[in-house]
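Practice record 12: protein with zinc ion.
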Amino acid sequence: MDSLITSVARDLAAASRVVALTGAGISVESGIPPFRGKGGLWEKIDPMEYAHIDAFMKDPAKIWQVLILEMKNVVDKARPNSAHQGLARLETLGILKTIITQNVDGLHQMAGNTDVIEFHGNFAWQRCMQCDHRLETRHIDLAQMPPRCECGGIFRPECVFFGEMISPDHLNRSRQAASSCDVMLVVGTSALVQPAAFMPVIAKRSGARIIEINSERTPLTRDVSDLLIMGKAGEVINRLLTEIEKLR
Ligand code: NAD
Ligand code: ZN
């Protein structure tokens, strides 16, 4: 493990364009449960029943009560952990350029990263499905379910549900970042949700080294990743930073 950390730290310090792809696992140490894996939300509820756009359209009150309110409770309390802070420090050091995140919790920006592509949108805002009026989630009146806009339309989070398209702008910027990096850090993602999981493949084909940080193996581990540092994101990134700071 020690030699792995030292060699990845050297790679990062020497790289000129590092891009990170992050998933729910990076926010676990901030108290936000992931979807899959131990303690994941999917152990309690079925994704297709709650996180698919068809389910939301069919019964928005139910999805608000079970999924959206639950997310609001955890996201409201969450603060960046040492993994988010470490990635912010990597940007300050001039090593990390862009984060492509599948998370909707806003913690990368809160930690200080300035170039964050929110692949699946952001939970901080809601949009009226009738008139497109936007309102911050914290100002939404939760007295009625589903919450409604003044025009009578229903509010929905500005997040991508399963069954919905990724914004073309986010997709283009992510592809661009993936194809122009020399190292991609893939942190805390099960790499099962497409097209996000394809970004490391694009990076690999463009010649980048793919370094995974995850507490478990993923479908990328064998064929796409150059190596996996197995462990908790916060601990691993802290150790990498300690080594990188020594090299400078
Ligand atoms: P996922 O839930 O499918 O997978 C989580 C991954 O993180 C797993 O591979 C797991 O082994 C790993 N992991 C768990 N704890 C870890 C830790 N402490 N350190 C390192 N790795 C750890 O997550 P996903 O791949 O991001 O896909 C789920 C989808 O759910 C995403 O598209 C995202 O939009 C959404 N989601 C977002 C949040 C959030 O915003 N924080 C939370 C849950 C789900
Ligand atoms: Zn409206």
